[in-house]
Give the backbone structure.
Amino acid sequence: MATQPCDSCGMDVTIAGGIANIWTQEATVTGGMTLELVDGTEHFLCFDCIDRLPDDEDVTADHVRGL
Ligand SMILES: [Zn+2]
């Protein structure tokens, strides 16, 4: 298990460690994911911040910074 800081709020997020997890049924607590935005940038965000992203418009780096 590893942690990675959320790009928006800076909170340490627990992420699934290792590619092996893809092939197991083991329940892994993962608190966030990397999003690729319409402007081509990638941001790792916790689910709290992902919840705050707008559903009805294209998400850009400005949204990530503005959360
Ligand atoms: Zn966050």
